[in-house]
Amino acid sequence: MNNEVRVRFAPSPTGYLHLGSLRTALFNYLFARHNNGKFILRIEDTDQSRKVEGAVENLINILNEMGLNYDEGPGVGGELGPYFQSERLEIYKKYCDELLANGHAYYAFETAEELDEMRKVQQMQGKQTMYDRRARVLTENEVKEKLASGIPHVIRLKVPLDTEIRFTDIIRGNVKIETNLVDDQVLLKSDGFPTYHLANVIDDHLMQITHIIRGEEWLTSVPKHIILYNAFGWEIPKMAHVPLILNPDKTKLSKRQGDVATEDYLKKGYLKEALLNFMTLLGWNPGEGEEKEIFTKAELIEKFSIERVNSAGAVFNVEKLNWMNGEYIKNYDIDSLTVLIIPYLNAGGIDTSDLIKTKRVIFAIRSYISKLDEAAEQAKLYYSDVTLTGEHIEIVKSETSIQVFDALAKKIEAITEITTDNFKPVLSEVQKETGVKGKNLFMPVRLALTGEEHGPELGMIAYVLGREEVLKRLRKLL
RNA sequence: GCUCCCAUCGACUAGGGGUUAGGUCAUCACUCUUUCACAGUGGAAACACGGGUUCGAAUCCCGUUGGGAGCGCCA
User: Fold this and answer.
1) Are A167 and A94 found together in one domain?
2) A286 in contact with nucleic chain B (CB within 7 A)
3) Is A22 domain-assigned?
4) Domain CATH number, residue A393
5) What is the per-residue pLDDT for A348?
6) Which residue's C-alpha is at the least distance from the C1' of B33?
7) A133 with A103, same domain?
8) Distance between the alpha carbon (CA) of A316 and the C1' atom of B59, Å
9) Potential cystine with A328: which of A207, A274, A299, A466 (Cβ 3.0-4.6 Å)?
């Protein structure tokens, strides 16, 4: 039981689930499931100024929708809660006092303006911008006085000087940094809320997290965390900093260059299975000569290992996602796919009350679309009336075309039902009878049935339209 | 600017001292379909550079260059 793997996804509720966060959550989830461990959701809502209404609910919804269900966290409970950091303020306060008492932290009283000024000077001198630790020299009495007079204050980490911090990251190997370059990070803000660094370390320890799997952007703050673990005398969890997801120009994936919210992709008609599959393969792969690209969730869980996560960032390539999504659509269970597509057809103004027809249409269009939101456009020709323009009218009105339509209509009247493969033989017979062949035969029929020069094969179109509709469209031109 | 991280086709990646450097997306050609797609076949396409170590380096080491991230009382 004590060796149980416990990982967490610890987002701050910004109102949507960023694709980068989705992948971090995904890796945590896969790692937990692979190891029969626990996947915990913790909400990092310590920034009062960035509160967003409904953000937490939205986050939980998306996580559930994506099938990344967690074992402990908001809504499902757990022994080591609460799982909202805003409800754990007392805990942070207590541990911060401990740090103060042991000399690992100290009070500081600078204003935001003073700190800005300090950084400006450092920048000009070509130094790393960081707190100059000036409040360290305050005497006990000076501190007492300032506290008594009610000057706003923060509590900062007292970084041990002139030494270095080394740690091993599962993905990156050994990393080291001199402590003189580590900032005396603010631990407790003047509003009494903890910063990420304090809350994160305390919660990970208290929630018995064994592996911290998070984005690469946290790598440089690991030394601060290690100093904290050491100050508390706690065991340091294993760490894995996963590479970033990049824009095509290799910068960190950002809103400015396209959609970054998971819900946007869902809305556009990417299947969650495809999205999961694709995101997992961004920065990870099963290796060992595996040449498959499509994996079920169960397969991913079985094969996933954090050691095989790449160390370099990965560009988010929508084209490959499109391809993969198309693969999923082509192979999806037709009934399930129908349920998923109907809303998109309705949104495109298509009446789906005839379920039999709807299913036929979906069967016909599934290999033509890579996203669900393309469905209505592809389905249109099976619903709307045919309107011909310009030279199409001439083609349809030509003498041979009329002969073809007439012969074809008669043949169809003689059969009871059009199937996916009895339409072509009928056309062949028409060809024999009328002597019209090639483009002169097929194009008029195509135009008569769809009004378009291009489209699916005629047999499929005729099957989906059905006998009555085909006859109707032919007769209209006679 | 400073610190840290990273480096195989355009993109995602496999490989990890001796390989014709493999696969997928995209791209190109051909085939199929008398349409467009789908599908199939084939092609073009990469080890950033320079030094070492070694009989041998894309692979190990160092450096250079390039890219990224971090440097908040945000997370």
Assistant:
1) yes
2) no
3) no
4) 1.10.10.350
5) 92
6) A457
7) yes
8) 27
9) A274
Q: Examine residue A112 and state whether it is found in any structural domain, yes or no.
A: yes
* Chain B: bases < 7 Å from a protein Cβ: 1-8, 10-15, 22-26, 33-38, 67-75
Closest CA to A66 of A18, A7, A22, A16: A22
Phi, psi dihedrals of residue A266, rounded to the nearest 5°: -60, -45
What are A149's two structure tokens? 């007079």
Active-site choice (A255, A267, A432, A476): A255
Q: Is the CB of A114 under 7 A from strand B?
A: no
Helix (H/G/I), strand (E/B), else coil: A332: coil
| Res A247: pLDDT | 94
| CATH code for the domain in which residue A116 is found | 3.90.800.10
Q: Is A292 in the active site?
A: no
Give A210 CA → B33 C1' in Å.
57
Q: Are residues A147 and A165 in the same domain?
A: yes
Q: In what order do the strands lie in the sheet with A186-188?
A: A105-108, A154-157, A186-188
**Same domain assignment for residues A343 and A422:** no
- Residue A439 domain boundaries: 385-475
A307 domain residue, yes or no:
no
pLDDT per residue as tens digits for the range A69-115: 999 999 998 899 899 999 999 999 999 999 999 999 999 999 999 99
pLDDT single digits (tens) A427-440: 888 888 888 878 88
Residue A2: its pLDDT value, please?
64
> Strand B: which residues 126-185 of A lie within 7 A (CB)?
126-131, 152, 154, 172-178, 181, 183
Q: Closest nucleotide to residue A215 (Cα to C1')?
A: B69
What does the pLDDT look like over A307-359, one tens digit per residue? 999 999 999 999 999 999 999 999 999 999 999 999 999 999 999 999 999 99
Question: Nearest nt to A251, CA vs C1'?
Answer: B68
**Complex ipTM:** 0.94
Of A355, A380, A405, which marks where a domain is finished? A380
Residue at A347 is within a domain: yes
- Tell me which residue of A431, A429, A423, A425 sits closest to A458, measured CA to CA: A423
Q: What is the CA radius of gyration of chain A?
A: 32
Tell me the backbone φ, ψ of residue A105, rounded to 5 degrees. Answer: -145, 160
Where does a domain end: A163, A195, A227? A195
Nucleic strand B contact set for A 398-457 (CB, < 7 Å): 424, 431, 437-439, 441-442, 446, 453-457
Taken as a whole, chain A contains a residue count of 478
Q: Please give the C-alpha separations between residue A307 and each of A9, A287, A478, in angstroms, as whole numbers.
A: 18, 11, 70
Structure tokens at A46: 């310590």
